[in-house]
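Student:
Attend to each token:
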Amino acid sequence: MVMRECVRRWNRLPAAIAADEGKEFTGNQYRRFLADKHIEPVTRPSGEPRFGNPVERCFLTADTCVNLDLLGNNQNIRDVRMASRSHAPGNLATHAILGYERKLKDFFYKEYPDRWHGGIKCTPRERYEEGLRLSGARLHVEIEYDEALRFQTLVDVKRWGGRIDPRTGVHINDHDYWCDDFRTYGAVKRPGAGKPKYDPEDPTQIILPFGGRNLRCDLIGSQLSRLPADPEHRRHYLGERLVMARQTKESREAGYRGRAARVETLLREQQELADQDEADASRPITDQGSLNQVKLSKRLADLPKLKEGY
């Protein structure tokens, strides 16, 4: 998304990009994009934190000039014993992701370029204009923000089993996407279908490699009507939904405890039924005994699934 913002605002990309050794910066898609745009990749060495000083300085500037001026900042909890519950940051925060993004953009695009910078002895805007005067505008390196750029910056879906439902289509990120070509193939699951790509800024469409083509699948109408009408809100809708649906450590531990309790209950009931059948072994099997056998078989059928989930 940073690449898109650079093209949207300045119609060009940097000549080199410095990144660490994370998975997202060593993948083939990232490398192909840099090679296509003639950008030199620069990898920060591991174990050398001083190479990240420019980025960390930007974070510090945003923290001191923006975050500490907002309601709900955590400055008052540096000494937790001096803060009361009524002034807890979580109870005073008023900005959502969209409002916070506007605050950051107003600072970095309107206020910060006109501030005096002690390192360069001028403002960032003056240094940028000076660079254009010395090296020229270089209009031949400008990049248009078009469909090709949007396609190159799509994101791969992390989890997808390759299933295509003939009735609802493709289920990704808790949304269902449909294309009319699914009726032609009539397939429920095709191993040849590639991994879909989605746009974090536009949850209404995805791209699915299918049958040797890239199919554009649209969000079904019943779910499309529930999306925010404002395009700015839609840009953050999918990101917020994915973050909110992410399991926390507490919820995972609660799920583990719940499954362990169910497994323990099934084992106890299994032992009780076995003891009861052993006591009635010397007598003919009655209807109640047959009912106990049915209950035991149903419980044993569910036991492997619970053990596997636990």
In short: The mean pLDDT is 77.
